[in-house]
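**Paired protein data**
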Amino acid sequence: MKKNNSFHLRLQQRHDELRWLYMELYDNDSMFAELCSKMYEFFKERNHTLKAIDAVRETEPDWYKKNDLLGMMFYIDNFAATIKGVESKLDYIERCSVNYIHLMPFLETPKGRSDGGYAVSDFRKVQPQLGTMEDLEHLTSSCHSKGIHVCMDFVMNHTSEEHEWAKKARQGDGEYMSRYFFFDNDTIPSEYEKTVPQVFPTTAPGNFTWLDDAKHFVMTSFYPYQWDLNYKNPRVFNEMIYNFLYLANKGIDIIRLDAVPYIWKELHTKCRNLPQVHTIVRLMRMISEIVCPSVLLLGEVVMEPEKVVPYFGTVEKPECHMLYNVTTMAATWHTVATRDVRLLKQQLDILHSLPKEYIFLNYLRCHDDIGWGLDYAFLQKQGFAEVSHKQYLNDYFQGYAGESTSRGELYNADPVTKDARFCGTTASMCGIEKAGFEQNDAAMERAIGLDLMLHAYMFMQSGIPVLYSGDEIGQVNDYSYKEQPEKAADSRYIHRGPMNWELSKNISNLNTVEGKLFHGLENLEQIRQTEKVFVSNADTWTIETGDFSILGIGRFFDGQKIIGLFNFSEFDKTARINEIDGVYVDLISGETKTSIEISIPAYGYYYLKKES
């Protein structure tokens, strides 16, 4: 069979649904024909190495669902200055047991109006200070030779106002104005504002921006310099798909669909999670399966589980391969602040009830703020009122309440509603910054213990664990952003500081903070990769422990059983585990446990494996 036949076979298998969905949105035969023709061109341009990876992964479509993936996300400039710099650090990445790197936005953006790289002015150019597309292709090739997968952001909801389309639209070119949402008066924008929530009510209020030079309003859901794309226009969909395939052909393995719930707009709705969004994601899934079947779609859906789960699609008609476990991340920090695992246990029970085909990315911290979008109906039954509890959480993590050792800053604080989000690194939120500043050795040991316990608990969840660069050495908040005018107004830069390579030299010294954290994480990573019970399709459930401060998680696969216990309190505790039905060995310390009553030190954790 000729190599090109693989494309035609895959297209033939999906053609009817692909055409039906496309015509449902656009009813445009010629644009569909153009799309199929361009898909074939991108397939032909895909290099032999990538096609070989496609072929292997087609035979093993669940390759990413095992227990051997560990991710790390970072900004290229903060991590290693340039793309070539990242390539020079691949040995360090391997030393971290990481085999999946997420390169935070690196495409061309205007300086000072980039929103951290999410205001793209050219989808086919790298920011000049970071390198070139050739550098990117060389990096992905080097990563593949080491078994490292590469993820990037695809910002599909909007472009920068400096994008070629936006510039022509601003000049009054109707063809390009139709690629955005332009209005010559505020009648329709005012109607949108009645139902569409604001993303940044304090730093970028409203959903439209008046362009004085163009004498038009343009829809800007995020910041005024980020213009929302109009996916009702088939030209927008086609061109963005061509950008998607261009980037996939540069060797990207995982494409993160940024702000995907926002991409379809309808008047008199919230312009979130509309049915057409799912049609578009389903189309993208099929297009990637036809042209570049090894590429995975990662959806960024920062919402509660009932709104997140639909982005997996169905087993028969899948959409995203993976989604972020956002709500669990927020619930984890709530648990740290309250020492009460009930909400977290309820959240995990929901996740454990989902089909095992659904893969979540689990993380403690990322590049973004933490929003307290918790289940307040559930919390109210435990005595937590929404407004006062959000206030407590923000006070706690700033270090003002609850005997907190955390340090960090608020983001988008609303003086009227008192609502706010929180920013800080994992280490600073765990108390490492405070203990280091005070040179308190005992406090530092507790902080390191909390940090490692949280990572041990994260590794126990089903899915793929992802570290934020610097967490492996306990990097703390970076307050220098306040001295940089283009960053000073955005407190998220407090946890986006540059990688401290001097501190990374301490990872082999177990007498240092960096060495203790790195060694502890390394041990957890090795356990996860060697114990088959950590595969994503294992049976997973929460366990009653008899103490609100202790979380219990059970995992079972192919005759192997592990019980994870995690003490979210700064006090020694005793758990009563009725599931202890024999001899269990702690994979971390080697201790044997046989009693149903198990003592757990402050911020302690166990991986108890049942002996056969």
Remarks:
- Residues 5-26 form the longest helix (22 residues).
